[in-house]
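dude i think i finally got it to work??
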Amino acid sequence: MKKTTRALALLAAMPLLALTACSGGGGGDADAAAAGSITYWLWDSNQQPAYQQCATDFEAANPGASIKIEQYGYDDYFQTLTTSLVGGNAPDVITNHPSFFPQLASTGQLLALDDVVESEGINFDDYQAGIPELWVGEDGDRYGMPKDWDTVATIYNAAYLTEGGLTPESLVNLDWNPEDGGTWEDTIAHLSIDKNGVRGDEAGYDPQNVEVYGLGLKSKSGIGAFGQTQWSMYALSAGWEYSDKNPFGTEFNYADDEYIDTIAWWRSLIEKGYMPSYQAASSGVGIKDAFGAGSYALVTDGSWNARSYYGFEGIDAGIAPLPTGPTGERVGVLNGLADSVLASSENPELSKKWVGYMSTEACQNVVADAAVVFPALNSSSERAREAFTAAGIDVSVYFDAVAAGSVELAPIANHWVDVLAIMEPAVESVLIFEAEPESLKEAATDVNKLFAND
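look at this
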């Protein structure tokens, strides 16, 4: 079980904390609400400078207020959060993930933020469609203020395309299917090169000694249950759905043929030497660094990482659409982070005021100008696109996918921590060839048992 899963499992088992903030919510005048010091946690270091500027601007507009920003890597983020909640030294405001907020909300760790929407005069029609709704709990209360949105596309090494006689345009209309991989697998095979210079679609290719893999592999928590940047684009474009409804589904579809066949085909790329082994992808060199080192010709990754692929010396990167699937559609996951206030905050009013400010144009424009992510506010999102363009990065593919409706919302459900705990090791076992794809049906049964009494 990964560290994030262990941490959230601990959180799920924790008794409700003695919430010191309960007596501090409400009351006080506006000046008092804007005074004091709070701590805000991020997990993306690339975004920290922009949010530090937002904090500086917020403090200038609210004399007596102090925002301390702390950044933790994603792999350790929730583990550190859990430890801080148990230890009584948790932050006031956190960057939150939609798949995990129900666990925090249902255990009483988050404050509802509906009053922030009213106080800031926020109109969610002005935000990326579908993102604000991700943060409403089953009780109807809002537990996150939307900060950004993201989806997935193909990122390529332009030099490898040229060397293989391909062009960026040749990536636009590729198709995929679980039987033979379609023209998508043909392209991945052609871009794979062994240490003798033989391509993956040529006789004599050695899958055990590969110089360049046609497709990279990202190893991260959620690879079995979510697979946003790994396999979701294949399963979803084959007509698969995560669950019977979203959000708060109670029957997950991990036993469906579309899912099993997708994982089986995806694993076959490892066997054929077109994608690295799971062990290699988990060895400590991340997908971005491996791309930058010239090890991958193509990767599928999220918009939040797009700029990182353009920062490697000697690498000319570009962005192309995902392949279409058996349904004739291309589908990526649409996700979005939000800011949440922990119920243990000793200054809930200032915390809410800060969260509200981060959702406004004043802060989201600062984030937009940094050209790292796409803010949730539509006007700021367009401003971010212009900033990316000015930096020489064409991110239109991500925007086009959302505009075309070629997206599905990220899955949100109760027991998500437990879903991860079941599906992640199950899929890992398949990827390292210790289990067959059919074994995932047993894991799927265990997942649905979690919801039997809901």
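DSSP finds 18 helices and 14 strands in the chain.
im so relieved honestly
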